[in-house]
Amino acid sequence: MSKIIPIQIVNADGPENLQIRFLLTDVCNYKCSYCFPGSNNGNYRFPKNNDTVIKNFQRLLDEYKSKLGKTKFNIHLTGGEPTLWPGITKFCEELKKSHDVEITLITNGSRTLEWWGNNSKYFYDVMLSCHHEFTDVNHLINVADLLFSNDVKVACSVLMDDRQWDKCVAIVEQMKTSKFAWPIHTKEIVSIPGIGMDAYTEDQLAYLNGNLKRFPSKEYFLKHIKSIRYYESIVTLTDNSTKEANSNTYITHKWNNFKGWSCDVALETLLITWDGSITGSCQEPVFNTSFNIYSEKFADEFKLDADFKSIICPRTSCDCAPETHISKRLIL
Questions:
Q1: Contact criterion met (CB below 8 Å) for 213 and 185
Q2: Three-state DSSP class for residue 197
Q3: Predicted confidence (pLDDT) at residue 73 exceeds the cutoff of 90
Q4: Helix residue ranges per DSSP H, 186-228
Q5: Of 179, 191, 253, 323, which residue is 20 to 30 A from 59 by alpha carbon distance?
Q6: For residue 129, which phi and psi values (nearest 5 degrees)?
Q7: Please, which residues have CB within 8 angstroms of residue 188's CB and are 6 or more apart in sequence?
């Protein structure tokens, strides 16, 4: 019997949506041993020309709206640790004034409860990442509870280190003692040879495959019912069946080799790297000209070509969960 594999993936976001992942900095107050390479080197501290960054973002969103009909924008702030950026408040305020923007955040949650209380109003969705080597678990629980009570869609993701597996599982259980029942996820480590995906046992992979470790409460559903879904994409398989795919479906099934596929990364998901370069979210070039979000000339020069379209994937491995869910098709 032929092996059943994907032949098409459709992103669960509608065609009116554009996601932008903005790597604000590679500065982080944690130094996790399994951190994604380059994420905490400290070479790119923070954007300094805040007004230029805001103006250029507005131009980027305007162009995608006028040329491609994008009307909803999800700006995903990450790092390093994005909450260390002094300009984060003004950035969020100005973009939310000019466009239909949702600001989402991946953060280690280490800022004070006072900081989160003052700034939670700017964030639509916060994913708190829990790292066994550095996280104060009780503090992270308190941050999550505060965000929940302020109507932010909050969840926690525990990074599962195979070298400290029992400790990580215990953290998952400790999270369940929180005041409010927000979602708890587990997250595989994929970037470091010899640990994570290279070293998990079959039992550990099975644990990871059911990555939602606490189902959110009825109150959580009522707060966020319009935005809750249980999958990130729909995959069509070679037997013509379809499957709802969640955050780690493709990686844990080893369905993440899309070399030669037609991929809509340029149309759905952009990445702005620490130095300001704008690419597809997988760091593949998608524009005929190189653009930089920090450039003083960007607002005058940025435009989408008339033939702006999908790219042919050159990669043998797609290791970041968000990229696996981008719409793409196997070219037969």
A1: yes
A2: helix
A3: yes
A4: 202-209, 218-224
A5: 323
A6: -100, 130
A7: 160, 196, 197, 200, 208, 248, 251, 252
Check residue 40 and report its DSSP letter: T
Alpha carbons 92 and 86: distance in angstroms, whole number:
12
Contact between 276 and 290 (Cβ < 8 Å): no
Residues 6+ apart with CB under 8 A from 190: 196, 197, 251, 319, 320
Structure tokens of 240?
A: 């013509």
When pLDDT is cut at 50, 70 and 90, the band that residue 253 belongs to is: confident
How far out from the chain centre does Cα 138 lie? 24
Burial 88-103 (b: 16+ CB within 10 A, else e): beebbebbbeebebbb
Residues 90-107: pLDDT tens digits? 999 999 999 999 999 999
Helices (H), the chain: 50-68, 88-98, 113-119, 137-149, 165-175, 202-209, 218-224, 249-252, 265-268, 298-301, 321-324
Does residue 77 contact residue 106 with C-beta atoms inside 8 Å?
A: yes
Q: Which DSSP letter does residue 134 get?
A: T
Q: How many CB atoms lie within 10 A of CB 301?
A: 11
Domains for the chain: give ranges and CATH numbers: 16-230+266-309 (3.20.20.70)
CA torsion sign for 311, 315, 321, 324 is positive
Q: Are 148 and 164 in contact (CB under 8 A)?
A: no
Position 306 scores a pLDDT of: 78
